[in-house]
Design goal:
This protein is mainly α. The chain has helices at 3-6, 9-16, 18-48, 54-77, 86-117, 122-152, 161-165. The radius of gyration is 18 Å and the shape is elongated. The protein starts with a helix and ends with a helix.
Length: 166
């Protein structure tokens, strides 16, 4: 049994289209940029300069990286231009960012507690915290692409959502 056989056919058809593949590639690049920004901020603020706790450093890192992520995804990955719609784009995007923040705060706090309870040196605690942050956002990554592609940044004439959910 292959992984491909486990995915419903309407999803495979949509993922096979070159337009969706290009969006997925651009979404991936935007995600990598966001991850690099957040991980650098997290590592520097917690691991190197000891500015804040792991959770506060993670909060700042996620907040800072969310803005470029929104604009890269909206304008570059999905080609949306013009003014952003508050309730159709901005609020849902930030809602997903907040969901990611909550999950990452929980995983970062758990990682820090675990590392400290095992008396790891600060550098190892910092690396453990960064890995937990990446893991938390990795869990949400695929779901966010589907939401961005089919709901948040979908074209007005895009009625493929019904076939995706069938």
């Amino acid at each position: 049994m292959s992984l491909r056989s486990l995915v419903p056919q309407p999803i495979l058809i949509r993922l096979d289209s070159s337009e969706t593949a290009l969006k997925a590639f651009k979404y991936t690049v935007a995600s990598v940029v966001s991850v690099v920004i957040s991980q650098v901020i997290l590592f520097l603020s917690f691991g190197v300069f000891h500015l804040w706790s792991a959770t506060m450093s993670n909060f700042v890192a996620v907040a800072v990286s969310a803005a470029p992520s929104y604009y890269m995804n909206r304008a570059w990955a999905w080609g949306k231009t013009g003014k952003s719609h508050l309730f159709k784009e901005i609020v849902p995007f930030w809602g997903l960012a907040f969901l990611g923040l909550i999950l990452s705060l929980w995983t970062v706090a758990a990682a820090e507690r675990f590392a400290l309870s095992h008396h790891l040196p600060h550098l190892e605690v910092a690396i453990f915290v960064n890995a937990a942050s990446i893991a938390a956002f990795g869990v949400l990554w695929v779901g966010k692409f589907i939401i961005f592609n089919k709901l948040l940044f979908a074209k007005k004439d895009d009625s493929d959502l019904v076939s995706l959910l069938d």
